[in-house]
Design goal:
By secondary structure, this protein is an alpha/beta fold. The chain is 38% helix and 21% strand. β3 and β4 form a beta hairpin.
Length: 301
């Protein structure tokens, strides 16, 4: 039976102890004070006061987070059944600051196409699953402060390497259903046939089996996978717009959103996100790739 929830294993969920109270009201107050008063700002503040999304998490003592289980080095299960990866390490650190203990996290396995639905249905409180911010997604979920950036990469066999996107016209490109790659190529390259899969494992198996001519993933993942599979190469390392990867919450969860914004910014300023990169991503990318390629989330003017 396929694993649907990481929490089915005792390694993935620890029983909660004491919950540390956080000063979310102070955070909201600081954010409000930083900008002039306006009807819009007053409305946001009122929504945050009415919303109790963060307080409910603190009362339960568990932070439910949707993650990938087959997306190394960002979210995956190692040979011992333990969750690993950048997204998971970051989610655990956020949980520690929120509830006082990183083990008060419930990791829920998701697929790319299910991330929005898991939030809308209340299965999870937040998504930390290589979730790229797009205008379409912003209409149905709220994104917090980004923590990574990426473009799209294309991996193909070295024997038949794809170095130009037009080489794929009339050929088959493998993508994850509902992913940024799916959206981008559907919109911009109708002459490329898309073979879509729910799970990363199935998608890359299809590439290995020759069912597609290439695969498109976020460049962060594409570069990592190609480095571990020497018969393949990222012939196109960046294509499309620069994407920002961020935590997402359900529309209307303004209290939780405000807290996450403050938290991610704090972890960036203190260098904690850099430390998580060094622990989880640097062993994959090596020292030849500057971490700022992924961690500098300042929008380009």
């Amino acid at each position: 039976m396929a694993l649907s929830y990481l929490t089915q294993s005792p390694n993935f969920l620890k029983i909660s102890t004491a919950v540390r109270t956080l000063g979310i009201a102070l955070c909201v107050g600081i954010m409000t004070a930083c900008s002039p008063s306006s009807e819009s700002q007053q409305s946001i503040t009122q929504d945050q006061q009415k919303d109790q999304s963060l307080e409910k998490i603190k009362q339960k003592g568990i932070f439910r987070v949707a993650v990938f289980a087959d997306n190394p080095p960002f979210g995956y299960v190692d040979s011992t059944g333990k969750p690993q990866g950048f997204d998971i390490a970051l989610a655990k650190r956020v949980t520690k600051d929120m509830l006082g203990d990183e083990n008060k996290i419930e990791l829920v396995v998701t697929e790319a196409a299910n991330r929005v639905e898991f939030l809308k249905s209340g299965k999870v409180d937040a998504v930390f699953a290589s979730f790229s911010v797009t205008p379409e997604r912003k209409q149905v979920v709220d994104f917090a402060q980004p923590y990574l950036k990426a473009a799209l990469g294309i991996v193909s066999p070295k024997a038949k390497v794809i170095t130009d996107i037009h080489q794929l016209e009339g050929k088959t490109l493998i993508v994850n259903k509902g992913s940024t790659s799916d959206i981008y190529f559907t919109k911009n390259y109708p002459k490329i046939k898309l073979l879509k899969f729910e799970q990363n494992t199935d998608a890359f198996n299809a590439l290995k089996d020759g069912r597609g001519d290439a695969i498109s993933q976020d460049s962060t993942y594409a570069l990592a996978w190609a480095s571990e599979n020497p018969t393949f190469t990222a012939g196109i390392q960046q294509i499309g717009n620069q994407d920002f990867i961020a935590p997402a919450v359900k529309k209307g969860d303004t209290q939780l959103l405000a807290w996450l914004n403050h938290e991610i910014l704090s972890l960036q300023k203190t260098g904690e996100i850099q430390k998580i990169y060094d622990q989880t991503l640097q062993p994959v990318y090596g020292t030849t790739i500057d971490s700022k390629v992924f961690l500098d989330v300042t929008p380009k003017s």
